[in-house]
Amino acid sequence: MKKILIYRNCSLGDFIVSLPALNIIKKKNPNTKLFFASQISKKQSFVRPDNIPLKKKLIDKFIFFEYGKINFYNFCKIIKKKKFDKIYYLNAYISKKKLLRDYLIFNFLGIKKKIGFEYEKFNYEKFNETYYLCKRVKKNLKNTDLSLKGYLLLKKNVINNKYITVSFGGKHPLKKWSQKNWKNLLMSITTEIPNIKIVIVGSVYEFKIAKNLAKIKPGKIINLCNRTNIADLINVIGNSSYHISHDDGTMHIASAFNKKSTSIFGKSTAEKGRWFPKNPNLKIFYNDNINNINFGLVKAKVFKDIKKI
After folding, report:
1. Residue 21 in this model has a pLDDT that exceeds 90
2. Alpha helices, H only, the chain
3. Counted domains in the chain
């Protein structure tokens, strides 16, 4: 049986946006064993791609390595030993120099057929990351090729009553709306729409802030930060009535279900539009400086949507 390597360094959101491309690769290569390789991190907020529950099996085996010369050397030994027939390179294009470096590495490791190494500048004002990942592996794309819906495994809801989910995580400071804005938004929701519960999700890094926010209305605001594994997180968000977040992994989870959502976007280090999900039910508020986004506009949109629940 032929063996194919897919290479993409990713965590939660990065892996979710690549699922349509992985599905295309799976369809194009029947009766082939697919391996997915990625660099991983020891940070508590990092989500390993193999822990993300999917409805159908896209990857047969994962190969991971941590940062460091020795770890990368051991990774290369594994790749060389596997004798892959082909590689699909889905890693981010950082520069022509680094792309050439990776091409030469995988060439040295004995992989003759290499797909996805053609460097090009992307127009993220027109298309998002999912589109360009799919474009690397299939020339003529259909809208159905790009949809994120139907990939993540959703379990039965375990939270009683209707609720919305909130996430204010993010790796980069420029992605984070001020704590004052989040506090005012949650206070307004619990005061003016008292029949809805708010479930805050996130990692250990958001736990203390979420704990303080939960004190605004005990019982109405629930802090689940650092209290869920990835399967539970998907279950909580997937069964919610609405989702509010920054540009983070939870936004991509919600979009995988075409969830009615609001996302508050800052520039961070990526081009505008790159990480915008293909979710017709998502409203994005974007500004290069996230704290220049008008609080009143966000509140008005959120209230309009929540009142329909």
Report:
1. yes
2. 12-17, 19-28, 69-82, 96-108, 129-137, 143-146, 179-192, 207-214, 230-238, 249-256, 295-306
3. 2
